Amino acid sequence: MPLTGQSHIRIARPSRDLAAAERFWVQGLGLGVLHRGEGDHAAGEHDLLMVGLPDAPWHLELVGGPEQAPLEPRPTAEDLLVVYLDEPVSEALVATLAEHGGRRVPSPNPYWNEWGVTVEDPDGYRLVLCSRGWSNS
Asked: What is the tens place of the pLDDT at every residue in 61-105?
């Protein structure tokens, strides 16, 4: 089966605290919980939280470790998830993200400072809310 524009994409990341991540991505940004699963920690399985939009061809999978062996995310300043809003970034949205565990940070890339707002999630990964639009066509 070939890759198409409708192929579903999963972006997977480790998380120190799935509850904190859920507050940021769901209550802060407004994504929905698509799946939540608790792994058999004795067998080395991880807990999962999948968030996204029901009609989107993508979702974000957050993977948590057992309490005795927590995962340690190692994001860099260039590990970005960019959302193209095609409108100005709402300060109310940025405030809501901050209320739910996010932290507004400057980007090392001046492009994102000019065209958006960068917010770190509770694990240190960066979400860029871009005021520009995007189309692959």
From this structure: 999 977 656 678 899 999 999 999 999 999 999 999 999 999 999
Give the H/E segment covering residue 22: helix 18-22
d(CA 21, CA 15): 7
Half-sphere exposure at residue 26, Cβ-oriented, CA atoms within 13 angstroms: 17
- In order, the DSSP letters of 86-113 are SSPPPHHHHHHHHHTT-EEE--SSHHHH
Length of the chain, please? Answer: 137
- Residue 41's φ and ψ, nearest 5 degrees, are -65, -35
Tell me the Ramachandran region of residue 129: left when phi exceeds 0, alpha when psi lies from -120 to 50, beta otherwise.
Answer: beta
Kindly report, residue by residue over 103-124, the tens digit of the pLDDT: 999 999 999 999 999 999 999 9
Kindly report the CA angle at 53 between 103 and 95, in degrees rounded to 5?
Answer: 25
